[in-house]
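Saturday, quiet lab. Running sequence design on the structure tokens for the scaffold JK sent over.
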């Protein structure tokens, strides 16, 4: 069975993608910080009959990243790494004039440094896979200037560039940065709690990620809404 590592997999997009891959027969290594919620998600995913390893921890912890890759190795390798875990930097979001620098450091550590660290750990397994791929979950805040989204957007812009360079340096892999678009997630609710507008559920954008895996377009940055509509 193909094996994927998914961070931030206890809820939202990470869990929806885990369920979709499990339904296709993938074995999975799932990460999240909250053990109880992760255990519940892993049990639901395992109902598809695939192997599931759930490791609670913080992706900024190097030992935890090593454990995630070791779990994938035990399952048979790693064909896909999904860097989905994210930190906002402030909850709710604030203007740059008020953004705590420690919060910005946390966003960069989670969204950029830890993501690269996990890629580095997983690269030997990804290179050995017949069709290894890395997905980094981006945001439109990485490309557009939205008030209060500066710290988070800056970290995601840095992640986009890392993904672009990785795609150039690892031509045998596919490296896709994916902007999933607006979704109804706990992350968004924490970012802008006063915004109660209707948004799509994360499961609605999962077909965009599956299309990348099925068609394996060139490494690059993709928007889920465009993928769902048939365009890059």
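Result came back. Writing it out in full:
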């Amino acid at each position: 069975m193909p094996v994927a590592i998914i961070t931030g997999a206890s809820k939202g997009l990470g869990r929806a993608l885990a369920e979709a891959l499990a339904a296709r027969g993938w074995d999975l290594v799932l990460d999240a910080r909250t053990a109880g919620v992760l255990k519940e998600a892993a049990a639901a995913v395992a109902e598809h009959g695939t192997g599931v390893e759930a490791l609670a921890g913080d992706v900024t912890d190097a030992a935890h990243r090593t454990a995630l890759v070791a779990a994938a190795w035990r399952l048979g390798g790693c064909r896909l790494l999904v860097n989905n875990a994210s930190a906002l930097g402030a909850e709710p979001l604030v203007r740059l004039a008020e953004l705590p620098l420690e919060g910005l450091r946390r966003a960069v550590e989670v969204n950029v440094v830890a993501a690269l660290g996990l890629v580095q750990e997983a690269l030997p397994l990804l290179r050995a896979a017949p069709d290894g791929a890395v997905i980094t979950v981006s945001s439109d805040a990485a490309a557009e200037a939205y008030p209060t989204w500066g710290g988070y957007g800056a970290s995601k812009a840095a992640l986009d560039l890392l993904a672009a360079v990785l795609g150039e340096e690892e031509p045998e892999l596919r490296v896709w940065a994916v902007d999933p678009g607006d979704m109804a997630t706990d992350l968004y609710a924490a970012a802008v709690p006063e915004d109660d507008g209707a948004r799509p559920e994360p499961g609605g954008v999962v077909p965009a990620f599956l299309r990348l895996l099925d068609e394996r377009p060139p490494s690059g940055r993709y928007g889920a809404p465009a993928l769902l509509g048939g365009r890059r």
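Notes for JK: Strands lie at 3-6, 27-32, 52-56, 80-83, 133-137, 174-179, 220-223. The helical segments are 12-23, 35-46, 62-75, 101-128, 150-169, 186-191, 206-215, 224-228. Ask whether to fix the surface positions before the next round.
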